[in-house]
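Workshop exercise sheet. Pairs work together: one partner reads the sequence aloud, the other fills in the structure field after running the prediction. Swap roles for the next sheet.
Pair: D.N. / O.F.
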Amino acid sequence: MDTPAPSSRSLGEADAIGYLGTALVAAFVMCWHWELAQTPAFRNLAHLSWARIVGRDLVAACGDVGMILFGYWIGVVWTENKRWPWPGSVKTYAFLAALGFVFSVVAERLALRYGRSTYSELMPLIPGLGVGALPVLQLTVLAPLAFAFANARQHRKDKPHLAQPIAGDHTTETF
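Structure field:
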């Protein structure tokens, strides 16, 4: 099977790896910050030191990225296209959001069942599901956002003239 030549509509092998890497790094950074921000909504974390919370949230962010990577893999298998979700579409982002929602609900139900999480009064619950809204929103929002970021970066890379600073514009200087 011939691989199509790289273009603005198709990723080459190296670009596909870089694209996925960009999405996963973006997902990790966003998930880690989200984990830190939602910490007060978990009763079982209240007694931990700041250093323990940071370490715990780093591990949790790695788990979040693992779920996002699994969602990516499902999309690749479903579409039979290892360059999915490039170039991105509303349908693609909705699919990633739906997977993020399902993964989060399952993970939260398991964490609650086995005592890995307890919510404080700050955690809003999703009616009918009995799980926290913040961790469910996390992957529902951040999974598509990470790939939207990677798509935007790849689009800019495909069009190098967009990355060039405009004469006299000091806000776009590159290092």
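Discussion prompt: The two ends are 40 Å apart (CA to CA). What would you look at next?
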